[in-house]
Amino acid sequence: MKKSSATYLILMSTGALLFPGIALAQQQSGESASVEDSQDISGADQNVIIVTARGREEDLQSVPLDITAFNAEALEEKSIDTLDDIARFTPGLTFETLDGAGGAPTIRGISQIAQFNREQTTAVFYDNIYLPRSYLFDATTEGLARVEVVKGPQSSRFGRNAFAGAINYIPKKANLRGFSAEGFMTYGSDERFDIGGNVNLTVIPDMLAIFGSYAHTEFDGSWTNDHPQANFGFSPGTNGNVGGRNNESWSVGFIFRPAPSLTIETSYFDGEIRDEANATRYNTVNGPTGIGNCGTLGADGFPRLFCGPLPEPADTVVVEPRGFGRQVNTEIVRTAVTYEVSDNVTASYLFGRIQADSVTAFQSESDPVNCGGILNPAVFGAFLCNFQASPLGSVDYDSHEARISYQGDNGLTLALGGYYLDGTDINFFISASVPALNTLDPSEFAPLNLIPVQSPFSSPLDPERFRNFVARIEETKTETKAIFAEASYAFNDGRTRISAEGRYTWEEISTENTLRNFTVGNSPQTFKFLTPRFTVEHDATPDTLVYASVARGAKAGGFNAGAFDTEVAGNFDPEFNWTYEVGLKNTLFNRRLTLNIAAFYTDWSDQQLRVRDPTNPGGPGNFIQAITTNVGNAEVYGIEGSAAFQFDNGFSIDGNAAYISSKFAAGAIDPLAGEQGQDPDIDGNFLPRSPEFTAALGVQYDGDINPETSYFVRLDGNYQSKQFADPTNNVISPGRTLVNARVGLKYKSFSIDAWAKNVFDKKYAAAANFIYQTPPSNNFLGTIFGERRMFGVTARFKY
Predict the structure, then answer these.
(1) Is the pLDDT reported for residue 755 higher than 70?
(2) Looking at residue 281, what is its pLDDT?
(3) 27 neighbors 51 (Cβ within 8 angstroms)
(4) How high is the pLDDT of residue 517?
(5) Which of 105-114, 601-610, 694-703 has the highest mean pLDDT?
(6) In whole angstroms, what is the distance from residue 437 CA to residue 229 CA?
(7) Which residues, other chains included, contact 440 with Cβ-Cβ below 8 Å and sequence gap of 6+?
(8) What are the backbone angles phi and psi of residue 458, rounded to the nearest 5°?
(9) Residues 214-248: tens digit of each pLDDT
(10) Which of 296, 603, 703, 759 lies at a C-alpha separation of 20 to 30 Å from 245?
(11) Residues in CB range of 798: below 8 A, 6 or more apart
(12) Distance separating alpha carbons of residues 311 and 342, to the nearest angstrom
């Protein structure tokens, strides 16, 4: 879309924010005054949004935190299916899908530089159960009661690695309201087919209820794959278009209330993700077929770097069909017990278990048909297609949290608790190079998961053995202990409140390189850190809340199991930030008009960046890998807001906008760039994958045909400015504007919606990576493309 269109969208969104009395964008439909009753809203409570970000049920407008929340109806009306969609409607949040890993969410410009690291800068939870790997983050929103995005460091409340903020998926679950049932079905373009539903049954009134849900989704992908064998049907692999999925999940649970003061909830979730490879393009940068246009010349006489905007996407892509994206199996067990000791004291306990395993294989060849761009054909005697698998492995985590809370009549609120987590993470990195399909007879075609993989250390190397090898197997065990406390006091007739909260964490981490059968040097190691938060808030009027806070965020350190000399380069330290925030929340005219704005500054120190292993001499058998080390600092500041206005005539307008400056500060270096003949000092550069401007604008009309029949029409636009794909700021991902539309008809408990996403079929880069290779090997530029235009029809009933 033309630049003028993007500018217009920003101006309109900003105008919506400044319009007097504008309401929170994300909550057109609102939620009820209790979590258990979150789907039963009416009357004056229609736009009350209840969140649990501070461990208790609170009206969003009364919480001195910058939170964006979506209930089930908002997710449906805005056509939100994935975390990428959530990001488009959340100021200060961006998300990029990555091959295999699932993607890296970025809150307020605090981007994850080491994208495949075990720990991320944004913590993600499923019903307050920590999800320890990025391949678990991007799940379907079907079956969710609510999504909460809490911005700013939340380490004092959420703990593990809520360094920039936290995302919490809250599913629909058992309640004591009686019998209810819901079903849905979707048919759409590119073989889209979804089906599922849920049932809640009260077995004993006011005492026992059970719940079950099921969801299945199929999709062929929106990009045409021009590979000659695209329709062969590899499993796992791609078939037909690229970027498709075939996912399935189910859950069961119950709520038991044997006494009015005691509530027990238990649930079990089982999910399978079967993603195809993404729509991608990998370009060789240097060499006679490369796209290099800047930087020093390599030994071949060609530039080793690329500078400027990414090349425009073509109408189709060429992706090797043996590659596949996430193949993830997940099981989550959750038990929550709440006991009301008295009118003022509540005790609670939360247990969570998550077990998951993931397999992935993606290709980064610049010529996916003939291959040979990564492994030299002159050395290996054939044109081989290289596939990489990482992260690949499994997680097994148990967590326990106990809390006791006091709500006094004198304005004093107290909370005290403890947290314990014990988990094992096993991660592989596999490199497999197999003959190109055009050199094989179809009878020799085989999926990658049938190819034997060997260790390069198990026997003397030869070309055949070196084709398919395990470069790394690491097993990391984490034991986290934490105590946390919170105190809040209200005075000035309750209009002014001050609070202090904090968490002290002991985190013992040990990593073993099981491929080489040794424990990484300096392992195990215990990291200790205190993460406080201080807040002052004031009700300037009954409709206006003003707040200010200062908080410390912490992200755990760890170990480089793939380092050649782990005694020297085996570990890295935690990174920290201090964030200062002021905010304003306005609610007017019976909650039809609100305005939320927050401004913030973050001082980020000891940043974890990726460097080439300085201890690895290279040569036969020594696979050179990047490692993580603390060589960076950054400063981030910005302003963001969400707004909407509900007219009396059925029209509503909502919008959000954010400006964020996220830059490396003094002391930040990029040694990988230094290897390419560039200045490694990146002080003043923008962090990768951190756009300066984002904005969204939505318009909706709700009308009635008769007392039993209603309809709505909705149009949404989203804008994201350019961003950089690498710390040197050489590679630019251009900005984009996307438009969605939805129209729905509802008769009693039945509804049918027609929808379209990316209405104008914008072709754009959703993510990009510059892949540094040790000279004289070629550098690569990898681009992952966003979804093309999609449309469909969704039918739903609720009883």
Answers:
(1) yes
(2) 92
(3) no
(4) 55
(5) 694-703
(6) 8
(7) none
(8) -85, -20
(9) 999 999 999 999 999 999 988 888 999 999 999 99
(10) 759
(11) 180, 181, 182, 749
(12) 65
Q: Are 644 and 591 in contact (CB under 8 A)?
A: no
pLDDT at position 627 is 79
Nearest alpha-carbon partner for 134 in 126, 123, 142: 123
Closest C-alpha to 545, from 61, 163, 152, 158: 61
Ranked by mean pLDDT, which of 98-102, 201-205, 623-627 comes out on top? Answer: 201-205
In angstroms, the CA 352 to CA 401 distance is: 9
**H-type helices in 559-644, by residue range?**
566-569
Strands across the sheet with 144-151, in order?
66-71, 144-151, 165-171, 122-126, 129-130
Query: Which residues make Cβ contacts (< 8 Å) with residue 450, sequence separation at least 6?
Result: none
Q: Return the CA Rg of the chain.
A: 26
pLDDT in tens, 468-484: 667 678 888 999 999 99
Instruction: Determine phi and psi for 672, rounding to 5 degrees.
Output: -60, -35
Name every residue whose Cβ is closer than 8 Å to that of residue 330 and which is 6 or more positions away in sequence: 136, 269, 270, 271, 272, 273, 354, 355, 356
Summarised one tens digit per residue, pLDDT across range 360-385 is: 888 888 899 998 877 777 777 778 88
Rounded to 5 degrees, what are φ and ψ at 113? -70, -50
Tell me whether residue 407 is exposed, middle or buried, using C-beta atoms within 10 angstroms of its C-beta: 0 to 12, 13 to 18, 19 or more.
middle
CATH of the domain at 617: 2.40.170.20
Reading the block at residue 303, the tokens are 């530039």
Return the SS3 of 674: helix
pLDDT at res. 745:
97
- Identify whether the C-beta of residue 697 lies closer than 8 Å to the C-beta of residue 22: no
Q: Which amino acid is at 111?
A: S
Residue 22 is predicted with a pLDDT of 32
Cα distance between residue 214 and residue 323, in whole Å: 28
Residue 23 DSSP class: P
Residue 461 has pLDDT above 80, yes or no: no
Sorted by sequence, the CB contacts under 8 Å of residue 105 that are 6+ apart come out as 83, 87, 93, 94, 95, 120, 122, 124, 137, 167
The one-character DSSP state at 134 is G
Could you list the residue range(s) of the whole structural domain that residue 299 is in?
Answer: 3-385+394-798
Neighbours of 722 (CB within 10 A): 15
Dist. CA 527–CA 756, nearest whole Å: 48
Tokens of 457: 């250390």
What whole-number distance in Å separates Cα of residue 579 and Cα of residue 694?
21
Q: Is 382 exposed, middle or buried (0-12, 13-18, 19+ CB in 10 A)?
A: middle
Report the C-alpha gap between 511 and 524 in whole angstroms: 7
Concatenated DSSP letters for 72-131?
Answer: HHHHHHTT--SHHHHHHTSTTEEEE--TTT--EEEETTB--SSTTSSS-SEEEEETTEE-
Q: Which two tokens stand for residue 222?
A: 């929106």
Task: Give the full edge-to-edge strand order of the sheet including 780-785.
Answer: 280-284, 780-785, 765-771
Q: What percent of the chain has pLDDT over 90?
A: 53
If one counts the domains in the chain, the total is: 1
Please name the helix (run of DSSP H) or strand (run of DSSP E) that holds residue 714, with its range, or none.
strand 709-720
CA distances from 384 to 291, 336, 470, 783 (A): 22, 52, 17, 21
Sort 519 into a burial class: Cβ within 10 Å, 0-12 / 13-18 / 19+.
middle
* pTM, entire model: 0.90
Percentage of residues in the chain with pLDDT exceeding 70? 87
Q: Name residues whose C-beta falls within 8 Å of residue 406's C-beta, 6 or more positions apart in sequence.
A: 344, 345, 412, 413, 414, 415
Cβ-Cβ contacts under 8 Å for 410 (sequence gap 6 or more): none
Please give the structure tokens belonging to residue 550: 């200062």
Q: If we measure between CA atoms, which residue out of 102, 111, 63 comes closest to residue 83?
A: 102
Distance between CA atoms of residues 148 and 204, nearest Å: 31
